[in-house]
């Protein structure tokens, strides 16, 4: 089932990339095209590449929905705190503070015993910051 889901996701990404390369690319589409190629070249169980591509896509404000699909696929492959944190960033970019907070909390909860201090501190700051803002 996981293999079929990831294969479907990669097929959709390939389809979108073929449309993106059909005409002249804007800088944003060119970056997105590079991310799609990066994901397509990765192993079907490479959740780290999916996370990296999604993080860059969200930071560049490129294709946010495709970034969300990559993160969902990453979590489907293996539950990982990095994907939950990036999903929090996605929801923050979309303006949904409650979902952003929920995903930051899930990232902290998932990585509590596996994250290094730097990553744990960063996620904890996000949880505290957005948790407080929801109380106001």
From TrEMBL:
Highest taxon, organism lineage: Bacteria
UniProtKB keywords: Signal, TPR repeat
Spans of repeat TPR: 81-114
Key word Signal present: yes
Protein name: Tetratricopeptide repeat protein
Cross-referenced SUPFAM superfamilies: HCP-like
InterPro entries named among the record's database cross-references: TPR-like_helical_dom_sf, TPR_rpt
First and last residue of the signal peptide: 1-22
């Amino acid at each position: 089932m996981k293999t079929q889901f990831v294969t479907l996701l990669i097929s959709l990404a390939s389809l979108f990339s073929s449309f993106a390369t059909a005409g002249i690319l804007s800088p944003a589409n060119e970056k997105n095209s590079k991310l799609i190629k990066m994901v397509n070249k990765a192993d079907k169980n490479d959740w780290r590449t999916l996370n990296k591509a999604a993080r860059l896509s969200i930071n560049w404000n490129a294709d946010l929905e495709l970034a969300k699909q990559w993160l969902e696929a990453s979590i489907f492959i293996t539950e990982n705190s990095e994907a939950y944190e990036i999903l929090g960033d996605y929801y923050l970019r979309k303006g949904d503070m409650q979902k952003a907070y929920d995903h930051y909390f899930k990232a902290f909860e998932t990585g509590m015993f596996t994250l290094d201090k730097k990553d744990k501190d960063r996620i904890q700051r996000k949880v505290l910051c957005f948790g407080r803002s929801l109380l106001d």
